[in-house]
Design goal:
Number of domains: 1
CATH superfamily: P-loop containing nucleotide triphosphate hydrolases
Strand order of the largest sheet: 1-7-6-2-5-4-3
Strand content: 25-35%
Length: 141
């Protein structure tokens, strides 16, 4: 799926569509530069995964845990690199039990494996674009 995100409403609709594909264990590997909207997308995604609390970027804590329909583990790998870092933070201890949302996944891609969905976000001119290769069909909800 490729989509231009013109506003927060469209961002929320794509997150809602993606949530229908997510069952544990799964890694959702987010890539994209600073300010492109990864955390905002994750806030909407958590909403549709049954979590109604506050979602913040785990920049300094590395991982935030939320309780929705399934356990949700929200990671920020901005300051980490390589597969060893995943082992060091206990990533593999949680992987099998929930949905892992991994921002800056490109920094640890050599350690990510298994059931995975890639979410690539970037700027296309003055708009944001999202590409989710694992989802072929998408219709606005």
């Amino acid at each position: 799926m490729e989509k231009i995100l013109k506003d927060c409403g469209q961002t929320e609709q794509v997150a809602k569509a993606l949530s229908a594909y997510l069952r544990p264990p799964v890694i959702v590997a987010f890539t994209g530069g600073l300010g492109v909207g990864k955390t905002t997308f994750i806030k909407y995604l958590c909403k549709y995964l049954g979590y109604d609390g506050h979602v913040t970027s785990p920049t300094f804590s590395i991982m935030n845990q939320y309780n929705g329909k399934y356990p949700i583990y929200h990671y920020d790998m901005y300051r980490l690199s390589g597969a060893q870092a995943l082992d060091d933070i206990g990533f593999y201890d949680f992987y099998d039990s929930g949905i892992s949302l991994v921002e800056w996944s490109e920094n640890v891609e050599d350690g990510l494996y298994g059931n995975m969905i890639h979410v690539n976000m970037f700027y296309a001119g003055d708009k944001r674009k999202i590409i989710i290769p694992e989802i072929d069909n998408y219709e606005d909800a």
